[in-house]
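#struct-help
A.M.: can someone run this one for me? Single chain, 116 residues.
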Amino acid sequence: MHEYGMTKNVLETVLQQTEEKEAGPITEIHFVLGGHSDVEPDSVRLYFDEISKGTPAEGATLHFRRLPARYRCWDCSKTFETSLEEARCLACGSVRIQPLGGDEFYAESVEVADVS
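D.P.: on it. Structure tokens below:
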């Protein structure tokens, strides 16, 4: 259910920025999800369809790109990417690791229709 609020906030930001630039209707939005984010693209699509009704973003196609999970090892200081299921240092094998970000959810780019 947290996807509703997050989707609403991102959509409001996108709408504000496109209105400031007097852009045409929004046709596509490209989202980024962090490797530790539990945001579900299907839920975002569902909420987006409802929230965007009557706005310049209504009917826009949504795209999602997931960033790999990144970590820093407390024992050897290496930074690496791996899946959450295999969260151990790739260099020394330690499980004493720190996530580096990973909870991202934002609109990376927006495409608008040419209204000229």
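A.M.: thanks! The longest strand covers residues 26-33.
D.P.: also worth noting: The CA atoms of residues 88 and 94 lie 6 Å apart.
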